[in-house]
Write a structure and sequence with these properties.
Layout lengths: L11 H13 L5 H10 L6 H17 L7 E7 L4 E7 L3 H14 L9
Antiparallel strand pairs: 1-2
Length: about 110
């Protein structure tokens, strides 16, 4: 069993922040990710961030692979919290729904039940 990364040894709250930052940078902008982590005083090396980002991207991808579903990552930029939502809607339908919410000018729309 491989050892835990430095990121996996962080508290769940801080790890959630790191995950949100990595997702916001689409798993690839290591300099941008590292810069944000430095501003938050989260001391993780660039190479650790890169290795973890690859595993996170693979994990996020595996969450919906082969299920016929779409995985939506929602990042609340006010709290830096992220949520993963799995839906059977197509990516186009999700984008259309988000576009409709954005066009209506509503920032805190809750889905109707």
């Amino acid at each position: 069993m491989p050892r835990l990364s430095k990121i996996e040894m962080l508290s769940p709250e801080v790890q959630a922040q790191v995950d949100a930052i990595i997702r916001r940078h689409r798993y690839a902008d290591l300099d941008g990710i590292k810069s944000e982590l430095d501003r938050l005083c989260i001391d993780i090396s660039r190479s650790s961030v890169g290795r973890y980002a690859v595993r996170l991207a693979e994990s996020d991808s595996l969450d919906c692979r082969g299920t016929g579903s779409t995985l939506v990552v929602v990042i609340d930029t006010r709290s830096d919290q992220s949520s993963l939502i799995r839906t059977t809607a197509s990516p186009d339908a999700v984008l259309s729904a988000v576009g409709a919410i954005t066009a209506s000018g509503s920032n805190d729309t809750k889905p109707s039940t």
